[in-house]
What does this fold into?
Amino acid sequence: MSVIDELRREGDLSQAYDLAKERLSIKSNKDLIKRDLARVLTDLLQKNCYSVQADQFFDYLNEFYALEIPKTDSVIHENIMWQVGKFIKELTRSAAPSEVFDRLYDIILDVELPRGSSLFTFITSSVLESKDLNNSYINVLLKCRVRHLPANHFEAINEDGEKKPSLGELLLLTIAKNVTHRDNLIESDVHILLEELEYVEENYSNIPYVNYYKAKAYNCLGDKLKAEEAILIYLKKRSKEYLAWELLSDISDDKERKVQALCKSVICHTRPGQLLRSKTKLLYLLVKEKKFDVAKSLYKNITKTKQELGKNVSDDWRSLSNDKWFKSVKKEVDYLNYCYNRSNDIVAYVFKDWKSHHGIIYGLNLVKDLAEFVVTDDMHGAFKYFGDKRFRVGDFVSLKLQRVANHEGVKYKALYVEKSEKRPKRNIYKVVEDEISKNNERYFVGSVPINFSFAESKGYKLGDIVRVKAVKLPSSRVKEENKWKVLSLYNKG
It folds into this structure.
């Protein structure tokens, strides 16, 4: 053990540092002394990494890298980076100015960290924590790469029953959002992002937003074909995400598709404030199309939402209400109903390869604006119809359905609905012509139970031959008796 190391271990860092500097100037056993000085500097960095007085830390750090210790001395380099990670956390805790982070990240930008190590994870998470305080963090993260994280950091985290994203997912999303939202596009960074997205897609099926950001990345590069391919894959899994439909609109060069996709975006269920951008884009496109009646309805909704959320309503925005097109509208059109109908074609396009199921509407919930449908005993649900008067109880419908399984059981989400002429299965929908009969205080037409009071109000009595159209209602319990809803009851003659 050298004298310098002995002094260091005894805690006399000042004397150890001075001695190492003195001996280094003599140039005797230069490599050995450099290592001694590097270990002293490591201890000095550790001592100073919890101080918001950054200058001393930077002096020691720069001095270390000036020594040019070979990368083969990995332990020394790693010990230095552990102190850097601690220093980043301290800077973040104390909300240090952006320029301090910029200075630090410029120093460590080209440092190679051991892939898959705890040190790699520590530095990555530390830099991520600093992102709200500076802009230079993204350069370090792009150098780190998502693929170099240990596999266990791609597993979702459960804290007190709340599911939180893994470090791998946070890193990927942070890089993706930054790279694709830049005003000044850096193509090399977009290519790095695409490489990382491809890696995650191949190795981790639990990261949901991969194809969404692949679409954004390809769109940034002007590759519309690959961008649309990616967003269509994403939409088939997450059809209710307004941002995905908005992105499909941004990608498309076809004017009609742009409008249709925005129409679908604005009828997605989410917080009103989140739809302001899609609604505003749609409004300007509708004005260009001279759909002034819809545009006016949309304008009023946007303005009301901004006011309710306490957002600034600019003078330019207010001035739209003084435009000729705005004043020309005598009768507004409900934009939700309009958007629902106009988005049908783009929804059909997205799900064109999916199997159609044939069912029947058995109820309309006017309060919630829901149409209830049944296809089979196990396949049923409801869809929002936005006041579309085309849909009535008893209508046959063709549906594209998505099976959704969770802790509550299996549900079916209607992705696309259109009226159909094709009858549902016979065990769901019946047309029976028979006499009205009674059995155990219950009344029937053939095998279909009926409300006899209703039949009597129509002038029918026991023994009359009538025709009944009926639908079997979904059962919420396995052993629950089948219930039928009579859609119509009449005398054939």
Notes: The radius of gyration is 34 Å. The longest strand covers residues 396-406.
